[in-house]
C-alpha cells in the first residue's frame, strides 16, 4: 500500500473508446444505400444521426425516383413533342440538384462521424468521461 486513496466507485463501467473505422464503415456502407447518420449514432450523437437519417432517406429516394424511374422507363420520351425538351431539361436539372445534394451530404456525414469519434476519444483520454 502506498497510501494513495482508491478511486471512487461510480458503479458504472468505464467509458469505451469509439472506433473510427466502425464509424467510417457505418457511414459509408449505409450511406451508399440512403441510410445516413449511422456513424453519428454510433459516436453517441443519436439526435444528429436521426436528423441525418430523416434528411438523407427522402433525398436518396428522390434521386432514385427521378434518375431511375422517370428516365429509365422512358417517361421523358413519351411526352408531347412541344413540351418534351423543356420537361426533359427540367427533370434532369432537378435530378442533378438532388444528386449533388445527396453526394455533398454523404461525404459530409462520413467525415463528421469520424471527427466526432476523435473528439469523443480525446475527451475520454483527457478526463476519463465521455463528452456527451
Automatic annotation (TrEMBL):
Membrane-traversing stretches: 23-43, 50-78, 90-111
Top-level division of the source organism's lineage: Archaea
UniProt keyword terms in alphabetical order: Membrane, Transmembrane, Transmembrane helix
Protein name per Swiss-Prot or TrEMBL: TM2 domain-containing protein
Amino acid at each position: 500500500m502506498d497510501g494513495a486513496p482508491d478511486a471512487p466507485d461510480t458503479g458504472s463501467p468505464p467509458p469505451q473508446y469509439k472506433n473510427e473505422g466502425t464509424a467510417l464503415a457505418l457511414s459509408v456502407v449505409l450511406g451508399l444505400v440512403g441510410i445516413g447518420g449511422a456513424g453519428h449514432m454510433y459516436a453517441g450523437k443519436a439526435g444528429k444521426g436521426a436528423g441525418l437519417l430523416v434528411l438523407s432517406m427522402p433525398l436518396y429516394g428522390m434521386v432514385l425516383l427521378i434518375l431511375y424511374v422517370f428516365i429509365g422507363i422512358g417517361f421523358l420520351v413519351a411526352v408531347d413533342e412541344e413540351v418534351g425538351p423543356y420537361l426533359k431539361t427540367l427533370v434532369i436539372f432537378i435530378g442533378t440538384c438532388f444528386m449533388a445534394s445527396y453526394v455533398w451530404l454523404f461525404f459530409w456525414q462520413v467525415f463528421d462521424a469520424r471527427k466526432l469519434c476523435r473528439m469523443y476519444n480525446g475527451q475520454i483520454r483527457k478526463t476519463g468521461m465521455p463528452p456527451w
